[in-house]
Amino acid sequence: xxxxxxPGRGIxxxxxxxxxxxxxxxxxxxxxxxxxxxxxxxxxxxxxxTTKGSRVADKRVIGxxxxxxxxxxxxxxxxxxxxxxxxxxxxxxxxDASGAVPTEESPKRDDADAKPSETTDKVVCxxxxxxxxTCDLEGDIRINGSALSVIFVPSSPSERQEWKIRPYSRRxxxxxxxxxxxxxxxxxxxxxxxxxxxxxxPAVLFALGGLTGNYWHDFSDxxxxxxxxSRRYGGDVVFLVSNIQPWWLGKYxxxxxxxSNHDAVDLDRDATVRCFRRLTVGLRLHKELTIVPELSxxxxxxxxxxxxxxxxxxxxxxxxxxxAAPATPSPERKPRLLLIQRPHYRRLExxxxxKKAAEAAGFEVTVASPRADAxxxxxxxxxxxxxxxxxxxxAGLTNAVFLPPGAVAIQVVPYGKLERMARVDFGEPVADMGxxxxxxxxxxxxxxxxxxxxxxxxxxxxPESVHRSGWDxxxxxxxxxxxxxxxxxxxxxxxxxxxxxxxxQR
Length: 506
What we know:
Blueprint: H1 7-16, H2 23-44, E1 48-49, H3 71-79, E2 108-109, E3 122-126, E4 134-144, E5 149-153, E6 161-165, E7 179-183, E8 197-198, E9 203-207, H4 215-230, E10 238-242, H5 246-251, H6 253-259, E11 265-266, E12 273-281, H7 308-318, E13 336-340, H8 351-360, E14 364-368, H9 376-384, E15 388-392, E16 408-413, H10 419-432, E17 436-441, H11 448-453, H12 458-461, H13 463-468, H14 471-479, H15 488-503
Parallel strand pairs: 5-7, 8-12, 9-10, 9-12, 10-11, 13-14, 13-15, 15-16, 16-17
Antiparallel strand pairs: 1-2, 3-4, 4-5, 4-12, 6-7
Helix pairs in contact: 1-2, 8-15
């Protein structure tokens, strides 16, 4: 459209060449020709263009409810196409096409020459947060996805500013390319690209990759903060996804499609200039695996700021989970306890004994080691049918999100002064979900590290010295080389406490 001759301009030049025929006659001819040409131009100008292609969600389901065996290999081969860089700015400005698929566009308008309706300008960027980097923008926003560029055109002259935002929820994550957010200095700045597609819906721009592929990180790093950022729109929001992972969108398709009525846009392959009136760049991780209501955006579907209990209710609705309350213990109905057995390190070495102790406490017990390839809905329904979830610290405890409110989650904390980490990762989130959190700390006598290293080894004798030596050593010994043999007599009071709590729920 921008390259076509405007009708009025052509008629004016025609009139000037024929002034010798008389001013009055020329004016009438100009007016008549203008009206005819304008009507023809209006009849042929395109207004709405809708295209369709393959959906972005790959129907394969990869990963499942718990185990993270083979994660590093999967990260290298499947979902981490870019080599991680210690300093992001030193990476070449390239986009990887690995795993990307065509997307189905939402209805769009060819409004390259149109000026969006006037609204109050708003640009709020936070690059100094302890965990995440984000920008919230309202006004004239223009996005070139393949360039990872967001241009904000102010409605009046203002100071030119620029921010580099890593759209993954952890700002220190290497291997995730940054998005450049630029506020221009005037509405007439030639750096503003013309809009090819103008969306009525707002948008959230975020990145996959990073630590996704680990079940706990899938929820803590992406699903929970994405819910907090987008639930207020009631589904009318466009997801712009950098470093897209089709298998990930396929695995969590039910959740993603409940949050957005539009198909996700593969940002790295999208050279179209898309224009929005409202955009959030990046996901804000409030705390691990939870939502802090005061930090969530206002204006949810019913007007309140969303909570972690809202997220778990959303999951129960999304996966049609039947139970919204635990069972009350009675002679006719024993509460059900789900004991998660990890497939590798931090395993329970005496599962039969623990199962027998739980049965003696009055529970009906299920022992499960969730399959990595199990559909999420399958795992969700299994967990929701139980009243108590027990597991050693690890990704399997993430499944507490599917328990009915008022249920109990028991975290078995491995030896090595890991209690603070355990409470941050699961204790506080579980309480925010509306569940009862109980904790059982493993003693040195219950850890296989004692038999492996002996009582005088610093790992056994002085865990604080291991912590002082750095996270790598903590992870190597206490998370990577330790299994657990629970003292069932010592564990019995924790089981009794869980049963007593359920009885009080009547």
